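FIELD: query
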Amino acid sequence: MKQDAFKKIESVLYLPDREASQHLTPFENERRKRWLYCVSKKMDDPLLPDKQLIDELTYGIPGLFDPVSKSTAYRDMAAINKITGNITLASKNWYRYMVIEGAKDAFSIAKTEKDAKGMAAALDKIGKYTQADKPDNDFDWDQMMPPALEPSNDVTLLEGIEPIPNLEERRKELRALFVQEMRTTAIDIDTEEEEK
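FIELD: result
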């Protein structure tokens, strides 16, 4: 799919059908309906596998969009993933946030109830999900320097490479061999000029 077609459909993706159809061809509008369906499904369930959406695209949804070929479904999924981005990464961060917030609430409840075991369990969860139990990376990135490479035409600097004696003579021999090979294997083809 061309980039300009992608941008055209993406710009009217969330418009009502009547408005979107004014900007798109019927083919593009059909594609927009498939994309909109899949984007909304991915937003509802970020961990929904792409295979399930591809199957739904190939079977079609009566009244919404017609079935498409598997290759078209895969192209649509590429565009849908481009629109939604890596939504699973965002959902994992959201779940991590929810676990930490829940653990904070559990800690405050355990603290008011003077429950030492509950406080310890909540702190354990907070430590696990914030990775506070692991040491910080103390590597000093400012000390990392790229290697200082100096260009050279001396092949003896490379391991396992031997210099070729009489290099220019060898080049001439190889050129002559190549030209001779081309003359014996090349085939002339008569071209016909197009009539205007």
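FIELD: remark
The chain is about 60% helix and 0% strand.
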